[in-house]
Design a protein that fits this description.
Layout lengths: L2 E12 L6 E12 L3 E5 L6 H8 L7 E6 L2 E2 L5 H11 E5 L10 H11 L4 H14 L15 H13 L5 E5 L7 H18 L2 E5 L3 H4 L4 E6 L2 E7 L3 H6 L5
Parallel strand pairs: 3-8, 3-9, 6-7, 7-8
Antiparallel strand pairs: 1-2, 1-4, 4-5, 9-10
Length: 241
């Protein structure tokens, strides 16, 4: 099984001179295709920096990031943008839905941006919404949805482009525990049943158990990298989506 993303000897600093802070310190990390990886650690440990580097939204000071077989350092800006659009889906804590667009249009606009014809956009947006159980909400607007429903729409938007890699930054951080569990079940289902590779940042130990591997960070270094038994799912009865 190949790697979707590899980070080799990555160092990332912010600032310069004596005031510079080290976000990542010689970090090496690979994510296998179809893997569900949980990233944990205190604030400032480098978790979100890893997501940004994996997606090519930021560049390392030292080391190399390889995404879906492409070394990011060798790509022109337009090549990197095209690769990101094809390969990476994003899910954020704050949902980041556009309030003036319907649910269907929120899911469809990345497809339009990638050059899909309108009929294809509608078809794939409906398909993505169906996968997250939200197809009946397609004509509604974000402010008509609950927080959990908005996050489901955000996940549909992220998977509509059929990415190799789904990056989730605290996807349950703004949700109550029950709704958060439903979102975690959905991410697990997408990973296990549909083969979507997931990298999720979380502060929640229980949330981390929904993945099959947990990497713990401190001061920009990996201090623990273990396979994760699905304790949380077993306790919840693994009710799925």
């Amino acid at each position: 099984m190949s790697d979707v993303v590899t980070m080799s000897n990555i160092t990332k600093r912010y600032g310069s001179g004596s005031t510079a802070s080290v976000a990542l310190d010689g970090l090496t990390l690979s994510v296998r295709r179809n893997e569900y990886l949980s990233l944990m650690g205190p604030s400032g440990s480098g978790k979100t920096t890893i997501l940004n580097l994996m997606a090519g939204l930021d560049t390392p000071d030292e080391g190399e990031v390889t995404l879906d077989g492409h070394k990011l350092s060798g790509l022109a800006d337009h090549e990197l943008s095209d690769l990101r659009l094809r390969t990476v889906g994003f899910v954020f804590q704050s949902f980041n839905l556009l309030p003036a667009l319907t649910v269907a249009d929120n899911v469809g606009w990345p497809l339009e941006f990638s050059g899909c014809r309108r009929a294809e956009v509608r078809r794939r947006a409906a398909e993505a919404l169906d996968r997250v159980g939200m197809v009946d909400r397609a004509p509604r607007y974000p402010n008509e949805l609950s927080g959990g429903e908005q996050q489901r729409v955000a996940i549909a938007r992220a998977i509509a482009t059929r990415p190799s890699l789904l990056l989730a930054d605290e996807p349950t951080g703004n949700l109550d525990s029950h709704t958060g569990q439903l979102i975690l079940d959905l991410l697990r289902s997408l990973n296990q049943r549909e083969g979507v590779t997931v990298v999720m940042v979380t502060h929640d130990v229980l949330a981390a158990t929904y993945g099959d591997r947990t990497v713990e960070l401190r001061d920009g270094r990996i201090i623990r990298d273990v396979r994760t038994p699905l304790i949380g799912l077993r306790a919840s009865g693994d009710h799925g989506t």
